[in-house]
Design goal:
Oligomer: single chain
Mean pLDDT: 83
Strand order of the largest sheet: 1-2-3-6-5-4
Helix content: 10-25%
CATH superfamily of the largest domain: Trypsin-like serine proteases
Strand content: 25-35%
Number of strands: 27
CATH class of the largest domain: Mainly Beta
CATH architecture of the largest domain: Beta Barrel
Radius of gyration: 32 Å
Length: 494
């Protein structure tokens, strides 16, 4: 196919048949300056020697040998009785069974040296379950590595090799200064093809994929075997550890993710010192705040994290954090997405004092909490599995549902003690807005538009005064969790 390249096209007023006007030059849009594509050769030559190949092995146990032998015998049984007889005089063919202690290949990955004395970073999933880990340099020297620690939550592992001399290493960059659209390269061992270089641009930053850390998204080709390798900027600085790909086929589909190197180094420092990572804990469950609820609560936007559960006796409980609070700042830093709070707390040293700015009853207030230590699984309070509708209140009002679609009754003193509340009402039935929102019998209503609900009479009176043109925020408790719901009052019938 013939390809034609046109470097420039200049048209004058005369060539277009347009009259020339004295004193005026023809107005044409200036062509944007086009920069040439970067040449990565010098960069790769400089940083490539610090990138390593990692292979892992596991040792065969007697149990593995026994299982393989049983499988072999079963296969022979099925062949003999369902696949025809062995020729006379020919012995059954047996595969060579492994022997206990024998090393077999487990997996491959990538990594990079971060100090001249042999510290190597990679992904935790690269070395997970391995009995031995081997690191191969670009000059083909291979070393058995010691795993100093691996953290599955952050997917970071630290290895140590003893090379007997100074090793080339990568400079740690600042991923916060990286810009969307800038060029980056990845070096690794995709499909065990050592020292493979791919390039692309940063597609997005702080991408929330549900992992512990916000990730750097790029379109750099990353495939199985690239895991643990560096994402490098044009200065030759490592800004991330290649960790994940978005794929339906198992191969590269145009989206890859890297762990920001500053977050990875914080984890690595702890792993080097103690072999484990300690994280902070509040003892709460949180949820996302939608726009309608935020507006009903008087917030300017829906940034922040809504507290849906407070574990009794937890640091949050002792500090005075309440169900229904919306945490908008943590130690002075804004909570843009509700997952930000989880990451900030987990990154806080246990025993530290933390200040949470919460939105409560229409105004911000500060809550001081002494951060606890998370268990290895970072568990919080368990959810209640109680059946709905088992808690019944006092006398059910004879009137129909109010403008929000609730029929409610007062809580008994015993129910208040059990729930640990001073007020609130229990839902007996729903219709209209409440039913459409998924609220149901047995739910406990605690607050209406930042105001505590005292009893059924007070609640119904407050609902009657609501503006039907504005949504109302109702704090609903179900089991051990509570959440705000945004409901628009039904207009009064004429």
């Amino acid at each position: 196919m013939k390809k034609t390249m046109i470097s420039a096209l200049v048209l004058s007023a005369a060539s277009l048949g347009l009259p020339a006007v004295a004193g005026f030059a023809p107005a044409y849009a200036a062509a944007p300056a086009v920069a040439g594509l970067p040449d990565f050769a010098d960069l790769v030559e400089r940083v490539g020697p610090a990138v390593v190949n990692i292979r892992t092995t596991e040792r065969i146990t007697q149990r593995d040998v026994d299982a393989a032998g049983q499988a072999d015998e079963m296969q022979e049984f099925l062949r003999r009785f369902f696949g025809g007889q062995m020729p006379r005089g020919q012995a059954p063919r047996r595969r060579n069974l492994p022997t206990p202690g024998q090393e077999i290949q487990r997996g491959i990955g990538s990594g990079f040296v971060v100090s001249a004395d042999g510290y190597v970073l990679t992904n935790a999933h690269v070395v997970d379950g391995a009995d031995e880990v081997y690191v191969t340099l670009t000059d083909k020297r291979e070393f058995k590595a010691k795993v100093l620690g691996a953290d599955a939550r952050a997917d970071v592992a630290v290895l140590k090799i003893d090379s007997g001399g100074k090793l080339p290493y990568l400079t740690i960059g600042d991923p916060n200064k990286a810009r969307v659209g800038e060029w980056v390269i990845a070096i690794g061992s995709p499909f065990n093809l050592e020292n493979t270089v791919t390039s692309g641009i940063i597609s997005a930053k702080a991408r929330d994929t549900g992992d512990l850390l916000p990730l750097i998204q790029s379109d750099v080709a990353v495939n199985p075997g690239n895991s643990g390798g560096p994402l490098i900027n044009l200065k030759g600085e490592v800004i991330g550890i290649n960790s994940q790909i978005a794929t339906l086929s198992g191969g590269y589909n145009g989206i890859s993710f890297a762990i920001p190197i500053d977050e990875a180094m914080r984890v690595a420092d702890q792993l080097k010192k103690s072999g484990k990572v300690t994280r902070g804990r509040l003892g709460v469950q949180i949820g996302e705040l939608n726009k309608d609820v935020a507006e009903s609560l008087g917030l300017k936007n829906n940034k922040g994290a809504e507290v849906t559960q407070v574990e009794p006796g937890s640091p949050a409980d002792k500090g005075g954090l309440r169900v229904g609070d919306v945490v908008i700042k943590y130690n002075g830093k804004d909570i843009d997405r509700f997952a930000d709070l989880t990451r900030m707390v987990l990154g806080t040293a246990p025993g530290s004092k933390a200040t949470l700015t919460v939105w409560r009853k229409g105004a911000p207030t500060d809550v001081q909490v002494t951060v606890g230590e998370a268990d290895p699984d970072n568990k919080v309070a368990s959810r209640s599995g109680g059946k709905r509708g088992e808690q019944r209140g006092g006398t059910v009002p004879a009137s129909g549902a109010n403008a929000l679609g609730f029929i409610v009754s007062d809580l008994t003193p015993a129910q208040k003690r059990e729930l640990g509340v001073n007020g609130g009402v229990i839902v007996e039935d729903t219709e209209g807005p409440a039913e459409a929102a998924g609220l149901r019998q047995g739910d406990i209503l605690l607050m209406l538009n930042n105001q505590d609900i005292v009893d059924a009479k007070q609640f119904n009176a407050a609902v009657a005064k609501l503006d039907p043109k504005r949504a109302a925020a109702v704090l609903v408790r179900r089991g051990n969790q509570a959440q705000h719901f945004s409901l628009r009052p039904a207009p009064a019938s004429k």
